[in-house]
Design goal:
By secondary structure, the protein is an alpha/beta fold. It has six helices and five strands; from the N terminus they run βαβαβαβαβαα. The longest helix has 13 residues. The structure holds D-ribose. D-ribose binds next to helix 3.
Amino acid sequence: MIILASDHAGYLLKEEIKKFFNKENIIAIDVGCYSREQSVDYPDFAKAGNEKVLEDPRNVGIYVCGTGIGMSLAANRNPKIRAALCTDVNFATLARSHNDANVLCLPGRSLSARKAIKIVKAFLITEFEGGRHARRIKKL
Ligand code: RB5
């Protein structure tokens, strides 16, 4: 299952990602926020997203705030979360294949929907390579 979360600054990009998922019949759960007008605090939504992501090891999260930085800082406070802020496809691929990231963080204020969707696709289709990367992840 894919878990979506954002603050107000990430809301519009999250809506674009949802439109893409709807078109592709991909099911996702949105834990909020639900408006760009009301200012909210990204740690609250990272926490809500993390709770859902950790319900099943196959789950992944996609969290969006203005820069993606706040969401990644907040998400990574949970030791079972490996959240990666990715601004291009290569980062997303490596975040999965090398870091086994279970949360993708995106900057809503500086990514076009088109580019964000390419990043999302790369994140979702890439598998963790394991091997030496598994050893490193155990040390985190
Ligand atoms: C909200 O204005 C903004 O600070 C937040 O979305 C995020 O960019 C923080 O890292």
